Amino acid sequence: MTPLQRLTATARALLPEDGVITDLARLRTYECDGLAHYRVTPALVVIPETAEQLAEIVRCCAEEQIPYVARGSGTGLSGGSLPHAEGVLVVTSRLRAIKEVRREDQRAVVEPGVINLDVTRAATPEGYYYAPDPSSQQICSIGGNVAENSGGAHCLKYGFTTNHVLGAEFVTAAGDRVRLGGDAPDSPGYDLLGAVVGSEGTLGIVTEVTVRLVRLPEKVVTLLVGFDSTDRAGAAVSAIIAAGIVPAAIEMMDALAIEAAEAAVSCNYPDGAGAVLVIELDGPAAEVDAEYADVVRFCEETGAFEIRTAKTPEERFLIWKGRKSAFAAVGRISPDYIVQDGVIPRTALPEVLRAITELSERSGVRVANVFHAGDGNLHPLVLFDDAVPGAGDAAEEVSRGILDLCLQHGGSITGEHGVGADKAGHMPKMHAADDLDTMQLVRCAFDPDRISNPGKIFPTPRLCGERPGRRQGAHPLQQAGIAEVF
Amino acid sequence: MSDSLAGRAASEASVSRPTRSISGVTPGRVEHPTSTAEVAEIMRAAAAAGESVVPTGAGTKLDWGSPPASADILLDLSALDQVSEHASGDLIATAGAGTPLAQLKEHVAAADQRLALDEVVPGTTVGGALATNTSGPLRMLAGTMRDLLIGVTMVRADGVVAKAGGKVVKNVAGYDVGKLLVGSYGTLAVVTEATFRLHPVPQSRRWVSVAARDSAHAAGLTQAVLHSQTVPSALEVDASAGGVRVDVLVEGRPEGVVGRAAVLSALLPGAETSAEPPAGWGRYPWNDTADSHLGIKVTFRLSGLADVLEAAGELGLRGSAGVGVAYVAVPAEREITEIRAILARLRETTGRHGGSAVVLDAPPALEQQLDLWGPVPALGLMRRVKHEFDPDHRLSPGRFVGGI
Amino acid sequence: MTDIDIRNLGAFDEEHPPDQQLLDDCVHCGFCLPTCPTYLLWGEEMDSPRGRLYLMKEGLEGDPMSDSMVQHWDNCLGCMSCVTACPSGVRYDTLIEQTRAQVERNHVRTPKEKALRSLIFAIFPHPKRLRAMRGPLRLLQRTGLDRRLRSTGLLDRMAPHLAAMERLTPTITSAEPLPARVPATGERRAVVGMLTGCVQGAFFPGVNAATARVLAAEGCDVVIPRDQGCCGALSVHNGREQEAQAYARRIIDAFEDAGVEHIVINAAGCGSTLKDYARLLADDPAYAAKAADFESRVRDIAEILDELGPVAERHPLDLTIAYHDACHLAHAQGVRAQPRALLKGIPGIELREIAEGEICCGSAGIYNILNPEPARELGERKARNIVATGAEVLVTANPGCLLQVASAITAQGHQLGMAHLIEVLDASISGSSPEVLRSRTL
Asked: Nearest CA to CA, how far is B285 from chain A (Å)?
């Protein structure tokens, strides 16, 4: 038997019949995640129903030296759960129990396949919610959020997944189940959980996650503000931040993005706007009221031509629907597009937006801009028609050019979508060789055989144990019996 | 770096004879680098010579952690004391590891901004706070070092200079190595510079304080505040011989703060409102500079507060009831058996409530006789991390959990 | 090599394969997954809309039509919840129907599957045969089909339904057929034709009578042509395209000379098919134009009443109501607001929303007979959510949903009034006691 056959046999013994997928037509439905232009058909797909089963599969992978890739809902936008052709795809969609919601501790304990929004749904009757809200929150899984350190529109005020995950049960690349962090903060020892969150499945798989729940705010005010240009909208953002206001969210969309959202969900954004801001204020009513007055004044002073405040939950929903559907909605105005994700210092926003416009005009490639303006996280949507020869390449070039702009301004090549398969090649532009080498130390500690989601994040990982200039031989203390090397 | 440059760097870093000990261990010599490059040079030389290195800043917490197995070099980073960048529009600041935390806070305050991290140990440096992961009442609002640190420059055990993170708050490009360094007691790498996210200084603040009848009452009051709509920046409990007090800090716009303080007063009958912090706010309940006490950090689920207060008993405790972290002082003159019993009691109670009890600070003689850390999950993985970063175990050897 | 050669290697023949351009609209975002009942149940990509589209794509790319592909397409309830959820506007409804027609032509089913499907299509689309089934066990025994059914494990599924139907409609054996024309009460505001449906007509004739009464009360002359037959919904949802086309022509003919402005339907499943006649008959030169005209005049009962606006007085009904969105009304036709508005227009009614309202109850035409296990799970899930509202009466606009949910609610040991939307309006306009609705369990 080949190693894969042995793994398949193990999986069949462990899982119900429909939990082991070997049929080609079925396997192919798993060949891509939310970034559909990277495709690899996995050799095997398993859908475990318990953490024990998942750990057993990973243990078998370790024994057989078969690479594995974890996948939640398959909505990632960097190809982070792109399968490995000789490997197994471990799907967590059946690990979807919300095990506990504890109001008195402000915690929920969930399995990795639980949908982000379902955590909030479960906590809402208790007056709580789960704060990180990526645009895909209605379908993305908590396990995927942990892997990608997902953000969302409200992370400006509330932080990212890493700020809301307190503990996890974690299956190491050897198939061992260990506890990281816990119910209480500041678990003694290294903050391994801090390293695992955002590691894109390259260090292991979480099988249970303890998250912090946040009290539902007393008051939420959502504004939709129309400007004739992104410059003016940007000026409003600067004025708000400079005044010491930290809104729950400040989102910007430019004219092209508005057009797409309008076509998709009829969100009724202001007519003829060159840019809109979606601004949300939340908190104690008295605070929100005071901030609201200031925000309206700043918007007026910077030239807003329409300021609309949601009066009902339905109106609020519609404002957000336009924003949250923006990516997929671009499909309505362009046959093909690339969703880019880059970060710049917020103050560089006007300059970078102008440079993107220039890049777009020079190349003739249209770019729609959607972004989290409060923290400088850009999501330019580069539009093209794959049926036109060369259009895809031109779009790729513009897309790369935008990342270069981010780096020139001291930013990042990804703010929330992750590096995945897509941007591994960009990592050396952002990080020096020694920085990447340091990350590899973490990788080698967790997964020395590099079987956990190989080929992601890092362009050319070195072999673990390959250490340039590493001193050989035992340490004098060790020789003297004073210290022990663990 | 070329040899000539390296030579110059080394010559500029001064060396002195030790005047301080690390938990009772006297280092071989003290190096005083003035730049990351000099730190790298020292670390390369130490690697070549197989020397052990213990980094330090102001030395306020040199007695924290277990005594090092070896300390050939005490690496004094206090000359790396510059706030190199404060981009107020982007709400970030970068400072050298040796920069006093107070100095960084003062610097950014000029722009009505703050690093929302309390200086719980007076005089501590940026690097010291990072290495020991100290925090105070404001952690309820803004989290701890791990939540505020967005970029770090480190020198590895092999002398390689590496950066992690960056200068933007939102960034998921690669592993968050900075988080591993937070609270690592200098056992993984030498941090030379750190970049933080800042918060705007609130226009107004009020403390609402109330005396509780007993542990259960304090826990009940705490729960009431937690589930209220007052969004406190801090929710503290202070139990001492004088009784149990619950202190709540609200911050924001003047209009909002007045209203929220009023709501709190209604929730906490008999509470008093003040524009000034109560006594002991943001300080450990022990004297940092004297060897008179053991300082124990306890963590627990929010619902475990009453039990933890009971377990601390007459010793009292002070800390962040709103996040489940508190500190207990034990007089060092107590019998070792009694100290062990106290520690066991605290570990049993906090363990039941999902937390831990760690001895932060103790007279060196006592540190040798106690299990400072208690049970540590995933220790095997931690050892592997240590081994990758410092295969020869020369960085602060033995100061951390499990003998790391 | 030409495109045609490549395609012949794939899963589909040349006659309307799943439209490549429509497939290309899918950007693989996954927003459809949480709205898909089978994905909720099984958590498998292949049993999500995104996965089923991917299987179509595989078929177009040259992969042969495998049993596994067919199984996952068959598993689709056709609830079209995904169509509502899709931000990219993918026409999954069109694509799955194109695919199902291909499956019926190009996939060989097992004898067991064939027999079951034949039985269903020999009964359901035929109002007369369905009426005869009001004594269902008798029918089954007489035709000797009960053993056949039992061997497929399905009698257990059908029998409680059928028994329930009998309990619900004890008087229908003597129900008078509706007259060919019901005149408007008061001033005439419109002339409308009424489709009586198969299941609706057979098992819920009270609903049709109520529909006619309410329309008349709201100022409509109601024309009810004889020999309407089936609208073809079941056939179209199960890939029996030619059969569906024949039904559609007959319906169009039946209403052609009726002189009605609108054709009104009170069953959601039929309505969505009637509104798709233009596509169904697009290739028929004799009927294409007629079908398009017909389609433009079709209205669900809630739509027409909402368009007309109320004139008849609403008497108070002191009731808490949970309104269940029938998939073929909410997702396929986008009719969500109107039924709620009509209910809220009745004094005394408190309307409660059902959690996971967008998720199918598992009825889905004949899905609950073909795929009893997932249908049962979905029914139970829906029943739990309905019971959790604490409402006294469950209201919906589709007969299949009522049948499906009723059995699940009863099985969970709860009692709930059940009514079609129009029966509530009828009760209000006629001034009946709310007790009638409250006590009307299936």
From this structure: 19
Amino acid at A257: A
Q: pLDDT tens digits for A22-64? A: 999 999 999 999 999 899 999 999 999 999 999 999 999 999 9
Mean pLDDT computed over C390-406: 86
User: What pTM, to 2 d.p., does this model score?
Assistant: 0.91
What residues of A are in contact with residue C25 (Cβ under 8 Å)?
331
> In C335-420, where does DSSP find H-type helix?
337-344, 367-370, 372-388, 399-411
- What is the distance between the alpha carbons of residues A404 and A410, in angstroms, rounded to a whole number? 10
pLDDT digits (tens, 9 = 90+) for A299-323: 999 999 999 999 999 899 999 988 8
CB contact under 8 A, A265 and C46: no
Report how far residue B380's alpha carbon sits from residue A180's, in angstroms, rounded to the nearest whole number.
Answer: 12
In terms of DSSP bridges, do strands A177-181 and B149-156 run parallel, antiparallel, or are they unpaired?
Answer: unpaired
Q: Does B179 sit within 8 Å of A105, measured CB to CB?
A: no
Q: Of A160-164, C84-88, C164-168, C302-306, which gets the smallest average pLDDT?
A: C164-168
Q: Which phi and psi (to 5°) does residue C185 adopt? A: -85, 130
Q: Where are the alpha helices (DSSP H) in C62-135?
A: 67-75, 81-85, 92-106, 111-123, 127-132
Instruction: Kindly state the DSSP code that residue A331 receives in the 8-state scheme.
Output: G
Query: Can you list the residues of chain B whose pLDDT is less than 50?
Result: 1-11
Q: CA of A481, closest CA in chain C: separation in Å?
A: 55
Is C118 touching A (CB cutoff 8 A)? no
Q: What is the maximum span of chain A, computed from C-alpha positions, in angstroms?
A: 79
B to A contact (≥3 Cβ pairs closer than 8 Å): yes
How many angstroms separate the first and last alpha carbons of chain A? 37
Collapsed DSSP state (helix, strand, coil) of residue A22: coil
pLDDT, mean of residues C282-302: 94
pLDDT score at C367? 81
ipTM of this predicted complex? 0.95
Amino acid at B183: G
pLDDT at site A271: 86
What is the H or E stretch that residue C396 is in? strand C393-396
Best A18, A22, A26 member to test C by mutation, with max C CBs in 10 Å, is A26
Q: Do the beta carbons of residue B267 and residue B221 sit within 8 Å?
A: yes
Please give the order of strands across the beta sheet that includes B29-32: B14-16, B29-32, B73-76, B53-56
From residue A439, give the alpha-carbon distance in Å to each of A445, B397, C253: 10, 22, 73
CB-nearest partner of A331 from C27, C66, C69: C27
Continuous segment of H or E residues that includes residue C146: helix C145-151
In contact, A424 and A458? CB cutoff 8 Å:
yes
Task: Give the 3-state DSSP-derived string for chain B, with helices as H, strands as E and coil as C.
Answer: CCHHHHHHHHHHCEEECCCCCECCECCCEEEECCCHHHHHHHHHHHHHHCCCEEEECCCCCCCECCCCCCCCEEEECCCCCCEEEEEHHHCEEEEECCCEHHHHHHHHHCCCEECCCCCCCCCCEHHHHHHHCCCCCCHHHHCCHHHHEEEEEEEECCCCEEEEECCCCCCCCCCCHHHHHCCCCCCCEEEEEEEEECEECCCEEEEEEEEECCHHHHHHHHHHHHCCCCCCCEEEEEEECCEEEEEEEEEECHHHHHHHHHHHHHHCCCCEEECCCCCCCCCCCCCCCCCCEEEEEEECCHHHHHHHHHHHHHHCEEEECCCCEEEEEEECCCCHHHHHHHHHHHHHHHHHCCCCEEEEECCHHHHCCCCCCCCCCCHHHHHHHHHHHCCCCCECCCCCHHHC
pLDDT of the residue at C119:
73
Q: Which of chain C's residues have a Cβ under 8 Å away from the Cβ of A325?
A: 87
Question: Burial, B370: exposed, middle or buried (Cβ in 10 Å; 0-12, 13-18, 19+)?
Answer: middle
Distance CA C206, CA C412 (A): 27
